[in-house]
Each structure stands twice: as structure tokens, then as C-alpha cells.
What we know:
Low-confidence stretches of chain A: 79-102
Number of strands of chain B: 0
Distance between the termini of chain A: 64 Å
Strand content of chain A: under 5%
Oligomer: heterodimer
Radius of gyration of chain B: 26 Å
Largest interface: A-B, 55 and 34 residues
Amino acid sequence: VSAEETQEELFQLHVVGEIDVLYRVALSLTPRPADAEDLVQDTLIRAFRSIERFDGRHPRAWLLTILRNTHINRGRRRRPELLRDPSSHDEVASPNRTDSNIDLQLDAAIERALQQIPEMFRQVIELVDVGGLSYQEAAQALGIPAGTVMSRLHRGRQQLRSLIPQPLFGGTQ
Amino acid sequence: MSFLSSFLGTRAKSYDCKQVGKLLQEYLDDQTNEAVRAKVQAHLMMCADCGLEYKTFLQLKHALADRRNALPEDAIQRLQQFSTKLAEQSHEHSDETD
Lengths: 173, 98
């Protein structure tokens, strides 16, 4: 087994399966899907180059750190990002929803509410509640303590709830 | 003695609405320890208001998790193809330099 084959195998083993997670996190960091895709591509390149130095422990946390650093470096080279464009968000959020159990009215209300809450709360909700990351992984992605992730998540949920009419919650009231 | 233990045990399990309100999100995320979890659970079973609050947040959490399927497949496919090319190009490059 050559060194290059090992590098490919390691990349396949630790990185390729995390592409979904990386893209979802990238979408929460940057407003446009095309920029998120570029960000993930840059992250993949960096990960590939350094995979042989990676100790194999906690690959997601390792990749999220690379993603965050890549995002920060890209931000230094480019102009500040524009405010989130709702149409670009729709492009990501709407296609091919097949789960028939989704309450469409509640879903639409959540979509609107997510656009209304502050960015720092929306980010952690998208990473933890939507993306399924742990507090620790979200902390890694955002470069903040896990306790801050938790408090932002809790406050963000409270704000979402206050923006969604109670009757939409399964007729619980 | 057993009555006293039982009484103290019941008292130890009770939380009021304010305490449960503070712990509800952690309970929802399964971040509490077993003892706290049991106390919150006991309160939620007895208190209709807190029970409703819990159900509301649980539904919100589930609705948010349902959005997890919304990633565009074409973007994911492009990124997977990109990672395949990345590995292939590196391999070709190493062949050229051998």
C-alpha cells in the first residue's frame, strides 16, 4: 500500500461520509448555497492535504474545525457577507420534501420564524436541531463554548415558539 | 421507617413549575442526569401547564429535525464527485512524479 493510497483510504474513511454535515454547517455559516459549496470544497482540499497527520479520533470535530478556519480565512479575503437572502434560503429549504407527516402549516411558520430571529440563535438551531450536531460539535463549528451553544439554542427555541401561533402545535391549546 | 423513606422519596422527586421551566430545554435534549430527569418527569406528569409546554417544545424540536432532509441532492452529489476527483488527481500526480 503506497502512501498516496493510504491518504485516499483515510480520506474515504474519515471525510467522505461527513460531506452532508459539512454542507449543512456551511449553509448555516454563509448565506448563499453556492458559497457554502465552495466553502466545503476548500475544506475538503485542506482535509485531504492534512489527513495523514490526523490521529483518526473524532473526525467530525476535526473537520468542523477545518471548516470554521477555512470560513474565517475566506472571510478575510472577501468583502463582508450580505444579509441572508431569503430567496437563496428557499432554494435550499424547499426541494423534494417527501415526509407526509410534516405539518405544512407549522413548517411554513417555522420557516418564517427562523428568518426573524437573530443570526446567532438561528445558527445554533440549524446546527443542533436541524443538523443533528451535538452541543460540542456545534461549538467546534462556531468556535464558541458548548455552554454558549446551549444557552443560544434555548433562547432561540423560546423565540421561535413565541413567533409561531400556538394552535399550530398540534391543537394542543 | 418505610413510610418516612417513602415520604422523603416523594418529596425529593418534586420540582415546582419554575424549576421545571429552567430545566425543560435540557430535559428535552436529554442533557440532565438521571435524578433530575426523574424529577422533571414526575412534575410533567402531574402539571398540565408544564406538560403542555413540554409537548409544544417537543413538537417544535421534531419539526426542526424533519427539515434535516432538505439538503439539495445535486449539491451533495457535486461535492462527492469533487472529493473523488481530489483523490484521483492526487494519485495521478504521484504517478507522474514516480
